[in-house]
Design goal:
This protein has about 550 residues and is an alpha/beta fold. Among the domains are: about 60 residues, Oligo-1,6-glucosidase, Domain 2 (Oligo-1,6-glucosidase, domain 2, Alpha-Beta Complex); about 80 residues, Immunoglobulin-like, CATH 2.60.40.1180. The protein has an eight-stranded parallel sheet, with helices on one face. A five-stranded antiparallel sheet has the order 16-17-18-22-20. It has a three-stranded antiparallel sheet with strand order 5-7-6, with no helix packed on it. Helix 5 packs parallel to helix 7, helix 10 runs parallel beside helix 14 and helix 11 runs antiparallel to helix 12. It binds alpha-D-glucopyranose. Alpha-D-glucopyranose binds next to loops. The site of alpha-D-glucopyranose (GLC) has 9 residues, from loops.
Length: about 550
């Protein structure tokens, strides 16, 4: 396989609202990002992805855009954005913008006009169906709970909203909509933006007939729809390719077959895709709000299948544990106790960076930030969380049970402000933060990590650097070890006669592990324990959360 330069990139995701507040209003801002460029450079990442910073009523924290070619004044100005882009480029960091093109805010002028009358040209920018106030067109459920149809009195119709009632789905079938979308993308590409993260992009193609779903919530009718690929090809041909834009598509409830098509180079669609299957192995019966300990075997199987499957057909994965929609991984698949937080955070990092694909590190992950331990529902802000807190109770659970579910699963777990230092408000703001800071910030913060050579931060730094020098991490074939030892994930990456071997204990107990296939060991690339006591090839005892990455050659 020939390596494209971008395939060795590591991307760092910034949720600007919670990253760094330069003007003391309690909301992070563009200037706040600019202040931290040296920090990003030190980590060694190649690109940052910034979640939406366009004007928005913030019903879904910016994923409800009311104007596409401008900056939300809360974050700064277009001039400041250009300055940020310029300063990033000067130090060799690229910038990826988040593009929310499946839906707009209902405050967007298109929707404001569309809802007035059926004959307005903007009416056909959205998806409408007949219905009476008492009878929505289908039984489809919104991703945030409740019907996915909103009634509009003025036209006596329903509009489709797969997310919040204030996020109306765009009608991509309409060529004028696609022309507008290309205009928006071109605007940002012309400014010199290097990448696009395309929000829920596999939901853009809706059916023409709207049918009740008697098996589920409707997603099978609009997920990976018929036209997604042709729409992506169109955007690729006119925007992504001509401007040399790196793209990652966020894929909701997708399949591997679809992701292969979206990302295989010959198809000219996307560079890579996010899928979420590996982040559902702690959902009971696939329901996010029903808690269950994570199923390690399922996790290993999913990661392995996606590695092998995408590799076999030339697809490319975006690799990630965390983002702004997920609880913190160390509190979830790791162990956030004092004893094991650092070890398990490093183990998870090592496992992820050994895989094939492009790693995405979410702000705070590189210092092992945890879920906050909040005690009351009014500490939460997220629309999905607040909806679900009510819905779970309507389904018969107690308020305590509903609280236990949302506090484990809320997206706000990943949205608390970055803990920069031990000063008041964790150095995030001099004002009142928009979302409560996790109380462990005096102990877990960037300043502390930077002051200690064995911190999680420097572990991430090494992993990022390794991907630049070890080509096998980029190209190597994935080979999994299907061993009965449940808590251990072990795999090789093989290119020619070179092998990079990864082993990781996902448990808080020592585990004895035996290799089926020995290799000639050359060196230990990285480990999360001091010393290299476990360097015995055939049989090794892994300490709690121990993980090791070796380099060697195949034994013939
Ligand atoms: C994506 C975003 C999420 C948002 C949703 C609707 O999943 O990551 O934050 O709520 O799309 O735009």
């Amino acid at each position: 396989m020939t390596i494209e330069e971008w395939q060795s990139y590591s991307v760092y995701q910034i949720y600007p609202k919670s990253f760094n507040d330069a003007n003391g209003d309690g909301f992070g801002d563009i200037e706040g990002i600019r202040e931290k460029i040296p920090y990003l450079k030190k980590l060694g990442i190649d690109m940052i992805w910034i979640t939406p910073i366009q004007p928005s009523p913030q019903k879904d924290n910016g994923y409800d855009i009311s104007e596409y070619c401008a900056i939300n004044p809360q974050y700064g100005t277009l001039l400041e954005f250009k300055q940020l882009l310029n300063d990033l480029h000067e130090v060799g960091i690229k910038l990826m913008m988040d593009m929310v093109l499946n839906h707009t805010s209902t405050e967007h002028q298109w929707f404001q006009a569309a809802k007035q009358s059926r004959s307005h040209p903007y009416h056909d920018y959205y998806i409408w169906q007949e219905g009476t106030p008492a009878q929505p067109p289908t039984n489809w459920q919104s991703k945030f709970g409740g019907s996915s149809w909103g009634y509009n009195e003025a036209t006596a119709e329903y509009y489709l909203h797969l997310f919040d009632t204030t996020q109306a789905d765009l009608n991509w079938r309409n060529p004028s909509v696609r022309a507008e979308i290309k205009k928006i993308l071109r605007f940002w590409a012309e400014l010199g933006v290097d990448g696009f993260r395309l929000d829920v992009i596999n939901l853009i193609s809706k059916p023409t007939l709207f049918l009740n779903d008697d098996e589920g919530d409707g997603r099978r009718f609009y997920t990976d729809g018929k036209q997604v690929e042709s729409y992506l090809k169109e955007l690729n041909e006119e925007i992504f390719s001509p401007y040399g834009i790196l793209t990652v598509g966020e894929m909701s409830s997708t399949s591997m077959a679809a992701c292969i098509e979206y990302t295989k180079p010959a198809n000219n669609e996307l560079s890579m895709t996010f899928n979420f299957h590996h982040l559902k192995v702690d959902y009971r019966d696939g329901d996010k709000w029903q808690l269950m300990p994570m199923n390690i075997s399922a996790l290993k199987a999913l990661l392995s299948d996606w590695q092998r499957g995408m590799q076999a057909k030339g697809g490319w994965n975006a690799l990630f544990w965390c983002n702004h929609d997920q609880p913190r991984i160390v509190s979830r698949y790791g162990n956030d106790s004092d004893e094991y937080r650092e070890l398990s955070a490093k183990m998870l990092a090592l496992v992820l960076h050994g895989l094939q694909g492009t790693p995405y590190i979410y702000q705070g992950e590189e210092i092992g930030m945890t879920n906050p331990d909040w005690h009351a529902i009014d500490e939460f802000e997220d629309v999905e969380t607040l909806n679900q807190f009510e819905l779970i109770q309507q389904k018969g659970q107690t308020a305590d049970e509903a609280f236990a579910a949302v506090s484990a699963r809320s997206r706000d777990n990943g949205r608390t402000p970055v803990q920069w230092d031990a000063s008041q408000q964790a150095g995030f703001t001099t004002g009142k933060p928009w979302l409560k800071i996790a109380s462990n910030y005096t102990k877990i913060n960037v300043a502390e990590c930077l002051s200690r050579a064995d911190s999680i931060f420097y572990f991430y730094q090494k992993l990022i650097a390794l991907r630049k020098v070890e080509a096998t991490l980029i190209t190597g074939q994935f080979r999994r070890y299907d061993r009965p030892e449940e808590g251990v994930f072990a795999y090789d990456r093989i290119a020619g006669d070179e092998v990079i071997r990864v082993v990781a204990n996902f448990t808080d107990q020592p585990v004895v592990f035996e290799w089926a296939t020995p290799i000639h060991l050359a060196e230990t690339l990285l480990t999360n324990y001091e010393g290299d006591a476990t360097n015995d090839q055939t049989k090794l005892t892994l300490r709690p959360y121990e993980s090791i990455m070796w380099k060697g050659t195949v034994v013939v």
